[in-house]
Fold:
Amino acid sequence: MPAVFLKDRALLFVSGAEAQSFLQNLITTDIISLGSDEVRPGALLTPQGKILFDFMIWQEGDGYTIETDASQRDGLLKRLTMYKLRAAVTLALRAEEGVTVCWGDDADASQGAQGARGSQGAQGARGSQGARDSRFAKAGVTLVRRPGKHGKGEEALYDALRIRLGIVTSGSDFALQDAFPHDVLMDLNGGLSFRKGCYVGQEVVSRMQHRGTARRRVVTVSAVTALPGTGTEITAAGKPIGTLGSVEGDHGLAIVRIDRAGAAIAAGTPLLAGETPVSLVLPAWSGLVFPTSADEASA
Structure:
C-alpha cells in the first residue's frame, strides 16, 4: 500500500527530567505503559471531561512527541505551557512539517528498517522510522506514523481506511469541546486510562465508565448511493440520532446515540442521512453492540 503524507499534522516535543510525570498527570493516555515502538491516541480534557485537544503521542529518546492537527498546535502548546509552572520540562516545536502514514507491506518494511537500526538508541532513529498506531493495531492493521514527508499517496486512501475501520479524527468527525472521550471510543482504543492517577477531567470520564452512561458512539455508515456531505443529520422516525462526519463515496463515519439507533434497528425503522437511507455498523474491533432498549451497549 502507498505511503500517504498528511500535510495538516504538526509536532511538539516534550522533554526534561519531569516530562513523564508532567504528561501522566495531565493527559488521558497512560504513557508509563506506552511501548517503545507504539503510538497511542490521547487528549487534554476540559474540567468537565470533554476533549479540548486530541493528539497522538509516542516516546522518543528522552521525551515524547505529540502529533496533532496543525490548527491545534499553537493552542495546545500554550495550554501545556500554562500547566508547566516550575516543572523540569521543556516544550518545543519539532521542525518536521506533516506526518507520513503507511500500512501493509510499506509499514512492515519501515518497521523492519527501524529494528535494524534500533541499536543506535538515538531520538532521530525512531522519529525517522516511525512507530505503530495502536488504534489501527486494535483493528488488525499495522499502520506506522512517521514525522515528515516520505510518501506521495493520496490522502483519500488513508481516509478510506480509517472510515472502514471506524477511526475518527477531530474537525471532520467531531468538534472539540463537544465530545467526551467515550464518544470517540478512546475508552477502547488505548487513549483513555482508568487505572492511573488523576488528570484533568478524569473524575467525569471515570464516572461515565463506572455508571455505563456512554450512549454516543462511533459507527460506520453505508448507503447504496453516495452519502450526503459531512454535517448531515442522521434521523430515525424523524428524530435526530447523530451527524455524519467523514464521507468517502457511499461510506462514512458518524457519532450517534446507539440506544436510539438500536431501538430503531430492532423496530425496523428506516435510518436516514438527510433523505438517503443508510445502514449503521459499530466497529467490530470495539466489541460494542447496539442495545435494543434504553440500556447501554456492552463490550
About this structure: Residues 130 and 146 are 4 Å apart (CA to CA). The chain is about 25% helix and 30% strand. The radius of gyration is 19 Å.
